[in-house]
């Protein structure tokens, strides 16, 4: 029960809002009370809170109060670095200062990331054993881009107090950074490492154990919940912000990959630690895998071909022989150099062996309903070889047992109620059949029907696979001319964004930027600073763009963003739901599309005075049988299919400035 000596969350919120120069908003008050009740009742809560609600404050206030009351930290998990930085650099410092006099002590906070994000002092001081020469992809002394990055990291290593990779601005490549970092599996452990007493990752964990609020990311949250060893400090309450991203981020954590490159790395790591003939067997198995993957068609692999089964078994067995030949895992524990070499070898071999086992076990089920995982072949790129991947068809069971089963979880985002209900995401989180959760929509401070128009171009043809039809380019041109630029174009693919950019640069007399022309951060800055400028991009832009004011009056979405029909994971999930008697299309494809549409539409209104138009060129949003579900996922903009109405509105706005 709450401590009666502490101020109530309503009082704390009022003090915080007053100190920060804001004004009370009903949605924020409703949310702060709901979060406090969920914590008191130990009940999970999903909160949809529209842009401008002030949801960060609405969950931070009860989180801090609970941390003070229970003397245990509260974990805040986010999907993006941008939100982590906002919390740690802006929201928490200001809030802590505002509440300091009302609480037993000034609230404290820290950010915690995965071990790979921190400099390894042992590796940086050359104490770490050298990789096999073949594994040196470059010469650090070479005057090259990577060589210069390595030199910059070495200089930074002498002065950094945190070892956090994000301190390095501009950033460095993965190739350069991995010379100075280790994974959790490769780490010797603080007690065995010569640099253990001053390890940046361990110091960061220690700090996190002493604060009231720990800010982390969804991936580390998943690793902590599902791993054998805890990564985060003990906690009773988790707040998952950007909760619409949780399932995808957790899926990424539990997806494994096998390629000739990963096998070759294991061979190199085991190097001269075992007899050469045994290592050669694994090398030959890797070469067999390479030849097979180069010849096989990419895509989902529903039935295990005999030749692939034999190759995976060969990789599994030869990796196991290498593991056995390495001997006891704790050998050489008193010699850090040898221990580091052995740990790196075991890590690479375990990954190869366990992934091959997992892929083989994905087959042999009596029916589609018994299948738990999907295996597919990724064709790779010029810089990345073909690879086999395996992922779970659902992470709901893992989340239900490992995350929601152990603690109270508050999930929040501007987009959670898809089709007007929380049921779709609740099922993906594993809460579908649970009675121990509630979902609330605290609304938005924006007057959507008065501030924005949702225009669906019902008269256009359905989008095809052969690029943007000419009618779409004509429509985009007329809308942008009416708006006087000021347009964010969100396209279903990079190819479509580039094609539209090339075609329209010749037809428009306003500046037109395209994702990829420069860093996204610089493009968005340029877009925001020049009102006439337009910015075109793809799905990755949808959640990252925050441009309040007159620079953004029009958001164009080229098509309903269904997953690609040949996407291995979503198509397998769709089929799996159907095999169990559900509607696979609605549960997977329509939910996916609704979420992205809502995120895209959410770019328009970012401040109280913002106004404008969302233009969806895909007529299916007005005509298809599932259109009601998709429309029910969007804010309540004023809707029209008449092309004259949005153009007239945009022209009026362009004259207003």
Automatic annotation (TrEMBL):
Its EC number is 5.6.2.3. SMART domains: DEXDc (SM00487), HELICc2 (SM00491). Residues 14-286 form the Helicase ATP-binding domain. Gene3D superfamilies: P-loop containing nucleotide triphosphate hydrolases. It is an enzyme of class 5 (isomerase). Keywords: ATP-binding, Helicase, Hydrolase, Nucleotide-binding. GO terms for molecular function: 5'-3' DNA helicase activity; ATP binding; hydrolase activity, acting on acid anhydrides, in phosphorus-containing anhydrides; nucleic acid binding. InterPro entries: ATP-dep_Helicase_C, DEAD/DEAH_box_helicase_dom, DinG/Rad3-like, Helic_SF1/SF2_ATP-bd_DinG/Rad3, Helicase_ATP-bd, P-loop_NTPase. It catalyses: ATP + H2O = ADP + phosphate + H(+). Belongs to the helicase family. DinG subfamily. This is ATP-dependent helicase DinG. It comes from Nonomuraea zeae.
């Amino acid at each position: 029960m709450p401590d009666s000596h502490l101020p109530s969350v309503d009082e704390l919120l009022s003090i915080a809002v007053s100190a920060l120069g804001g004004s009370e908003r009903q949605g924020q008050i409703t949310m702060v009370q709901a979060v406090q009740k969920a914590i008191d009742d130990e009940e999970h809560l999903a909160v949809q809170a529209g842009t401008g609600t002030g949801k960060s404050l609405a969950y931070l206030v009860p989180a801090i109060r609970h941390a003070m009351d229970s003397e245990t930290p509260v974990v805040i998990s986010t999907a993006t670095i941008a939100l982590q930085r906002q919390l740690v650099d802006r929201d928490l410092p200001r809030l802590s200062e505002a509440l300091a006099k009302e609480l037993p002590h000034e609230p404290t906070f820290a950010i915690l990331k995965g071990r790979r994000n921190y400099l390894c002092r042992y590796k940086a001081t050359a104490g770490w054993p050298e990789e096999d020469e073949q594994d040196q992809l470059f010469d650090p002394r070479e005057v090259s881009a990577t060589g210069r990055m390595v030199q910059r990291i070495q200089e930074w290593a002498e002065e950094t107090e945190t070892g956090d990779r994000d301190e390095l601005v501009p950033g460095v490549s993965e190739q350069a950074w991995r010379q100075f970092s280790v994974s959790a599996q490769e780490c010797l452990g603080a007690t065995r490492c010569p640099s253990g007493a001053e390890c940046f990752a361990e110091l960061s964990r220690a700090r996190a154990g002493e604060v009231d609020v720990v800010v982390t990311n969804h991936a580390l949250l998943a690793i902590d919940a599902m791993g054998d060893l805890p990564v985060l400090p003990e906690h009773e309450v988790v707040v998952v912000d950007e909760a619409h991203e949780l399932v995808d981020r957790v899926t990424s954590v539990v997806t494994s990959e096998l390629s000739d490159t990963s096998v070759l790395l294991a061979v190199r790591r085991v190097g001269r630690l075992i007899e050469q003939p045994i290592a050669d067997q694994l090398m030959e198995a890797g070469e067999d895998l390479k030849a097979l993957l180069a010849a096989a068609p990419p895509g989902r692999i529903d039935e295990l071909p005999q030749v692939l089964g034999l190759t995976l078994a060969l990789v599994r067995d030869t990796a196991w022989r290498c593991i056995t030949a390495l001997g006891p895992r704790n050998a050489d524990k008193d010699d850090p150099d040898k221990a580091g070499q052995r740990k790196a070898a075991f890590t690479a071999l375990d990954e190869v062996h366990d992934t091959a086992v997992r892929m083989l076990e994905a087959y042999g089920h009596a029916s589609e309903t018994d299948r738990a995982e999907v295996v597919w072949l990724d064709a790779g790129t010029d810089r990345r070889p073909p690879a086999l991947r395996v992922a779970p068809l659902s992470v709901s069971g893992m989340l239900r047992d490992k995350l929601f089963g152990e603690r109270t979880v508050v999930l929040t985002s501007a987009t959670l109620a898809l089709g007007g209900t929380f049921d779709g995401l609740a099922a993906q989180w594993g809460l579908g059949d649970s009675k121990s959760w509630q979902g609330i929509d605290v609304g938005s401070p924006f007057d959507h029907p008065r501030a924005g128009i949702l225009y669906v171009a019902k008269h256009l043809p359905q989008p095809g696979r052969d690029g943007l039809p000419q009618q779409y380019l004509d429509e985009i041109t007329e809308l942008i001319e009416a708006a006087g630029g000021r347009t964010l174009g969100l396209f279903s693919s990079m190819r479509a964004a580039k094609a539209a950019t090339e075609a329209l640069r010749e037809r428009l007399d306003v500046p037109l930027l395209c994702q990829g022309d420069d860093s996204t951060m610089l493009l968005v800055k340029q877009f925001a600073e020049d009102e006439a400028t337009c910015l075109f991009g793809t799905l990755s832009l949808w959640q990252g763009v925050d441009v309040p004011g007159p620079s953004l009056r029009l958001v164009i979405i080229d098509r309903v963003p269904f997953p690609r029909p040949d996407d291995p994971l979503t198509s397998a999930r769709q089929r799996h739901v159907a095999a169990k008697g559900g509607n696979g299309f609605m549960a997977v494809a329509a939910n996916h599309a609704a979420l992205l549409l809502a995120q895209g539409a959410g770019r328009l209104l970012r401040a109280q005075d913002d106004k404008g138009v969302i233009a969806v060129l895909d007529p299916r949003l007005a005509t298809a049988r599932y259109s009601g579900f998709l429309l029910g996922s969007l804010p309540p903009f004023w809707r029209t299919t008449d092309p004259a109405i949005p153009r007239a509105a945009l022209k009026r706005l362009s004259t207003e400035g």
